[in-house]
């Protein structure tokens, strides 16, 4: 099962208790799955659902809010709810905030219906159940809502943004996509939608990935340090050999002579390790400066 399917399975188990959140949920269904003309409520109201569970939720919401019984019916690969009774259509549209919209803004989402944060969460959750997608966090971080209507996609983006989430919108073929890329904000979105089990799973994956990345960085750093140590050691050994071959090594000061022989005997040792072998012991910086002096002497010899 994909991560998207896991999230949706969890969200299908959620049921809004408060009437205002149920109203927001029904409004989301009307704006996404309902075919009707808000300017002509005498036309039938038809919900077309690819997922039968959507039809079941819509029927329950209509009964809970409007006390109107409707029966979902199978029509090929879809499940349909058709309401032809004019008073019922007007009542449902009025209760859901979709009838004779007083706001007539850029979006069909009624701001009065999504005034409370809990109602925003209910609306967004329903939109995700209908047309949402989230990638497997093991691979990368991406959440999106695909919409056929720009005005609704724009309104959804604004709704998500009002909750502190940096959502963006793009056009992909004939659809408008509201998307979020940041892992922290995707976590926040799962929380807003009440997908708490999915949120915990995502956070666990993030921790594992962070630990793995830290180990990789540490290994890369250690590999880089080893390479630097080997490169420096080779240069120092070559300088010491130049002084030895020109009989200059025996004329070095006791301190430089001691470190020179130690370097030849311990080609793979770090400056810190070499310093511990000296008598008295010397710090990393002191060892480095003594070996640099040897390199300078060798370079002068070669000129």
Secondary-structure blueprint:
Blueprint: H1 3-12, H2 19-33, E1 34-35, E2 45-49, H3 52-66, E3 73-75, E4 78-83, H4 86-95, H5 117-131, E5 132-134, E6 143-147, H6 150-161, E7 168-172, E8 175-180, H7 183-192, H8 196-245, H9 254-265, H10 271-277, H11 284-302
Antiparallel strand pairs: 1-2, 2-4, 3-4, 5-6, 6-8, 7-8
Helix pairs in contact: 2-3, 2-5, 7-8, 8-9, 8-11, 9-11, 10-11
General description of the model:
With 303 residues, this protein is an alpha+beta fold. It has helices at 3-12, 19-33, 52-66, 86-95, 117-131, 150-161, 183-192, 196-245, 254-265, 271-277, 284-302, and strands spanning 34-35, 45-49, 73-75, 78-83, 132-134, 143-147, 168-172, 175-180. It has a 4-stranded antiparallel β-sheet. A 4-stranded antiparallel β-sheet has the order 5-6-8-7. Strand 3 (73-75) and strand 4 (78-83) form a beta hairpin. Helix 8 (196-245) crosses helix 11.
């Amino acid at each position: 099962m994909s991560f998207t399917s896991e999230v949706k399975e969890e969200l299908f188990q959620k049921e809004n208790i408060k009437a205002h959140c149920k109203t927001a949920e029904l409004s989301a269904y009307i704006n996404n799955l309902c075919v009707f003309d808000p300017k002509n409520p005498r036309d039938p109201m038809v919900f077309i659902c690819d997922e039968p569970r959507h039809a079941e939720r819509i029927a329950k919401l209509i009964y809970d809010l409007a006390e109107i019984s409707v029966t979902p019916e199978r029509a090929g690969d879809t499940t349909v709810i058709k309401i032809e009774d004019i008073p019922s259509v007007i009542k449902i549209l009025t209760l859901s905030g979709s009838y004779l919209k007083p706001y007539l803004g850029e979006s069909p989402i009624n701001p009065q219906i999504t005034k409370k944060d809990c109602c925003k969460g209910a609306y967004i959750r329903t939109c995700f159940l209908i047309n949402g997608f989230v990638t497997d966090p093991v691979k990368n971080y991406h959440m999106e809502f695909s919409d056929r209507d720009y005005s609704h996609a724009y309104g959804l983006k604004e709704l998500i943004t009002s909750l502190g989430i940096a959502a963006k919108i793009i056009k992909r073929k004939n659809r408008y996509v509201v998307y979020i890329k940041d892992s922290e904000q995707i976590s926040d979105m799962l929380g807003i939608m009440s997908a708490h089990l999915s949120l915990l799973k995502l956070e666990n994956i993030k921790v594992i990935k962070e630990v793995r990345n830290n180990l990789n960085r540490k290994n890369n750093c250690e590999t880089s340090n080893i390479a630097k140590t080997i490169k420096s050691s080779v240069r120092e050994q070559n300088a010491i050999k130049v002084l030895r071959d020109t009989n200059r090594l025996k004329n070095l000061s006791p301190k430089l002579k001691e470190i020179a022989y130690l370097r030849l005997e311990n080609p793979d040792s770090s400056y810190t390790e070499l310093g511990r072998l000296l008598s008295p012991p010397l710090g990393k910086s002191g060892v480095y400066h003594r070996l640099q002096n040897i390199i300078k002497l060798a370079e002068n010899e070669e000129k």
